[in-house]
Amino acid sequence: MPIFRSVLRGQSGGKPYASDLSDERWALIEPVVTAWKAAHPSVSGPQGRYEMREIVNAILFQSRTGCQWSLLPHGLPPRSAVMYYYTAWRKDGTDKATTGRDAAKKVPGRTRGLAVDVLGLVIAVVVSGSFDPRQRHR
Question: Insertion element IS402-like domain spans which residues (predicted)?
Fold first, then answer.
């Protein structure tokens, strides 16, 4: 069982950082992180030493504040653990935005594209005229 969150966050008062995931946001990405973790077992055991939510919180903290990796607060997992997941997710594309299409398209002649981050949050929307080679343009 991961011990990090209950022990170290407890020592710092357990107060969340502004960049920490809410329970709702964590519920959205937990299945993705859990599936990734199942495919990449940790050398320290199936669960690993640190909770994956805290790893994601540390990555978000670094991204939001721009601090150096070595200056992550003591209430977060150590730099080596956080950087391991960060580089692994960068390397295999887990962190990249994905592009989806509107499967429930209701407006003919329009194509909608969404770019979302690994949390599923929309970062860009593109709406354009769709091209159908079966239709002749007048």
Answer: 21-94
